[in-house]
Amino acid sequence: MKNYNFLSIILLGIVFISCGDKKINDNTLFNFDESKFKAQYQFQDAVELSVLNPNSKTVDSIIYLVNDKKIGTIKGTEKINFELKNQKLGYQNLKAIVYYNGENAQATARIELVSSVVPKLLKYKIVNTFPHDTKAYTQGLEFYRDTLYEGTGNGEGPSGKRGISSLRKTDYKTGNVYKKVELAEQFFGEGITILNNKVYQLTYKNNEGYVYNADTFKKEKTFQYPKQMQGWGLTSDGKVLYMTDSSETIHLLDPETFKELDHINVYSLINKIEAVNELEWIDGKIYGNVYLKNAIAIINPKTGAVEGIINLAELEKKITKLEDTNVLNGIAYNPKTKTIFVTGKNWDKMFEIKVSE
């Protein structure tokens, strides 16, 4: 447990979430027996579901649902045990539809499913240090065909002046930008990723993103988010897009229709991890910056569990301290060298690192 506490301090400004804010049904006929609920559950657990019947109604049957998916029907008011091993981390919304005397009523509640995976603290060594444009308010970073692509926002630069959001191709060895397209001033650029020779770029609060030809930077499409939310980080597993929105949720989007296919919630043991920012897909895992934390969380893309942490706090001591340079952001994996390139917003350096256990 000491190791866990240390990792929590490194990572994320942990917020402890209790079940004190469970959604309680206001239906007075039937309610879940919450005296049977634990504060938090893990994958190996099962939850006992039963309904209280304070008015002694004659109950015919009860249909139980978890996250609006039917899990079973029972006669009368019998109990049902539901195993949580195949659920997503996060809140599980419980519903019971109670049939009685030819009528029906509903009871609702929720429980929280948290991770049982203790994150490993990974080591790293700096392989190379390269120059980075101090006017680049880095929001997204990715290698494609040996070229480093970077998406920037219009944050404050070292001069104190707001920059212009952009999409760039850069020579990572020199820091020189040799191709760039800029967004209009009212758009704040966010995360990028590349899939099928197309660059996808998010915006912060405009609820839209853009698709460019990766070679020419010609804008091919403007797309809307599947719902009203902020755009933060973006990556791809080669088939779908993974998008963050400032919360603990990572949304899986169809790259053609931009409809939400699924989602995961990011947890480090019992704590949900909010403000997951820039993302990178590396060897089947999601590597994510966490806003205002000098660490990278390594996330299981199926469960949302944080499996590893890279503490990069020492890197900030190696850059020139300029205005607004306190945010580590930017992860790019070079598959040829099997190294990771990391930088920060308006940093004057980018670091090539090799990670190990």
Q: Which regions have little confidence, pLDDT < 50, spanning 5+ residues? A: 12-26
Question: What is the CATH first-level class name of the largest domain?
Answer: Mainly Beta
Strand content: over 45%
Please state the CA-atom Rg, rounded to the nearest Å.
23 Å
Give the strand order of the largest sheet, numbering strands 1, 2, ... along the chain. Answer: 24-25-26-27-9-30-29-28
The CATH superfamily of the largest domain turns out to be YVTN repeat-like/Quinoprotein amine dehydrogenase
Q: Brief overview, please?
A:
This protein is mainly β and 357 residues long. The protein contains one helix and 30 strands.
Tags for this model:
51% strand, Coagulation Factor XIII, Chain A, domain 1, single chain, 2 domains, 30 strands, 4-stranded antiparallel β-sheet, 357 residues, 8-stranded mixed β-sheet, mainly beta, Methylamine Dehydrogenase, Chain H
